[in-house]
């Protein structure tokens, strides 16, 4: 590594306070051209606040001490976690980019300005790894995928001549293939001599991309150093914990379970959205006490499959049998017992709660409606279940808006569990959580399956790490059920080409292989 | 802040309400008529287009307007809410069509024309006018209820409630209705103003209220001609109507305001 290059930006002893509470405390950071500096930590650890400080942005009402230096040409670009929020939805991509390009060609003769601006725009798009740039120019931001929006924002920053790019959680909620593409794209940016600051709780990505890592906890940097050193010899206890959870979870053994009668049997399922067929699953079975992971990229139809099972997606042919009896397609026609038997936990926990009522009451209603419990027993039971999942009574009495994403996810789980379901369907319930919270939730699920109640779990996920928890894995690609089998076999010797590529992408990230040619 | 808005709303709405409901108790026998549109003299607010005392007319003219308009708005919503909620929450396309299409037909007929048509056959009184005005307001209101509720009905929270086997009433009223309340309250405020003037226009054309009746809306309408000679006959009743609608809106806003929370922007 070339340490002679001076930093393009430097933060010294930064402290940001809101209402007397320090969000960031005593942070030092040096950003070097062509290097990737990663800030790692759970959500709420002060990563974003530190990253935004490089732009000179602070939360409203904050008291700031310390210094932030930038070199004279040190323009900073920011790629937020939700890129749609910073793209004007009423203007096409070309207009968004030309606005930035136009002032840069002002010096040229009038006749040449147009073509020069267009060249600049196209070059920025290709720099941001948007291959089919020309076609995208005519689209509006909402017509782009999340990944494309992210790259358009990146193109804006590059067009502006940013010397530093701050990327906030660029891979959250993405599948392994998309993740490795984002990694490649940021590596390419760094290779052009631009400093990249990566804010992430995704350790695989950090490992693959970063040169320097700062581990943050509760606003403080607990450890920093080159990525290899940190991974091989972490000094701080918190760093070790972060890394340990990443390495945990060995594949389970699925033998012995398949002998029993299937609890849930899917036969010739074909689901449609309007006129397009989005899912074809000829046969899929779930046995009592089994955990089945449904794996695939976003848009592969895995959520549709889960929604069909739960009765939330009615437009499908074929049969879903519970104990050999066909379930009605829509949950409106299912009996209370059938509703209670198959419960569903939503991906967006926040949106699945009524924002006007305290969490406890909402959770308790499941027992009242589906099991005929009276209000008091139901509330007590809800409180006990929430407690078992680590939510105190104090939290349970609050409104959903006052709980964090991880807490709400557990409350949503409690709401479903109160029905004493036989099949619990969890739709991407761990995406968007940091590694520690995610591991805690997965351990919880593993505990539920092992409890001996014969609860069966359907785990919808894009993350092979999460799928490892399951006894069996079913792989979906573009609406087709391409492969299914015991977890050990799928992970060790995937048969279908798509499964192989998904495995490779994950392995790639895990091995921390370098996408960048080092000099 | 919420409390201040609440007090302000209450104060603003109290003036027209008190005048409308208690006004008739404080007026004596009608005095002799003077000339049209005079100012000063023994008439505190001057005289109107047929030489009557404006203050006396103001005191007398509130009750019919306020009661008719409030009743018509309430009636319109009484029908629109169930229709809108049912069609937003049902998955049976035919039921939705059955509920909404007939209303669209009604929407296509100009509301005043419909009122005149029905009035020429039945010659309704104040209650009849309230019913008619409510009827012509139902299609608009139902469409707004359905649109506001439709957005809420598509949320995962509604699916989660269904997953819990929750009753229709709890889902429709307890969650969907409540979440759409802000939009509906805003619409009700606007609708009240519209209804007030629809009643007065009908009166102007000789339907329902008598064209020279002591009625705020009729007063604004009939005294327009003398606006520059004797402004009070128009301004005072108009201001009272404005106070009624603004005050109602302020009250709704204050009631629906969430408790101010420390809502730090995630930087």
Distance between the termini of chain B: 26 Å
In the CATH hierarchy, what is the superfamily of the largest domain in chain A? P-loop containing nucleotide triphosphate hydrolases
CATH superfamily of the largest domain in chain B: MetI-like
CATH fold title of the largest domain in chain B = MetI-like fold
With helices defined by DSSP (H or I, 4 residues minimum), what is the helix count of chain A? Answer: 19
- Backbone shape of chain A: globular
**What strand line-up does the widest sheet of chain A have?**
5-6-7-3-8-9
Which CATH first-tier class of the largest domain in chain B would you pick? Mainly Alpha
Show unreliable segments of chain B: 259-267
In total, the number of strands of chain A is: 19
The percentage of residues in β strands of chain A lies in: 15-25%
CATH topology category name of the largest domain in chain A: Rossmann fold
Q: Helix content range of the residues of chain B, please?
A: over 70%
Number of helices of chain B: 11
Question: What do you see in this structure?
Answer:
- Chain A has helices spanning 47-53, 93-101, 110-127, 133-136, 146-159, 176-191, 203-209, 227-232, 237-247, 302-310, 336-341, 359-371, 375-388, 393-396, 405-417, 435-450, 464-467, 487-492, 497-511, and strands at 9-18, 21-31, 36-40, 62-70, 76-79, 164-168, 195-200, 212-217, 220-226, 264-273, 276-286, 291-295, 316-322, 325-326, 342-345, 423-427, 456-461, 472-477, 480-486.
- Chain A has 519 residues and is an alpha/beta fold.
- Chain A folds into two domains: 9-247, 3-Layer(aba) Sandwich (Rossmann fold), CATH 3.40.50.300; 264-349 and 426-511, P-loop containing nucleotide triphosphate hydrolases (Rossmann fold), CATH 3.40.50.300.
- In chain A, the strands form four sheets. Chain A has a six-stranded mixed sheet, sandwiched between helices. Chain A has a six-stranded mixed sheet with strand order 15-16-17-12-18-19, with helices on both faces.
- In chain A, strand 13 (316-322) and strand 14 form a beta hairpin.
- Residues 248-258 and 513-519 of chain A have low confidence and may be disordered.
- Chain B has helices spanning 2-22, 54-60, 62-89, 93-108, 111-122, 126-153, 156-163, 168-179, 181-204, 216-222, 232-256.
- In chain B, helix 3 (62-89) runs antiparallel to helix 4, helix 9 packs across helix 10 (216-222) and helix 10 (216-222) crosses helix 11 (232-256).
- The radius of gyration of chain B is 22 Å and the shape is elongated.
- Chains A and B meet through helix 1, helix 11, helix 12 and helix 15 of A and helix 7 and helix 8 of B.
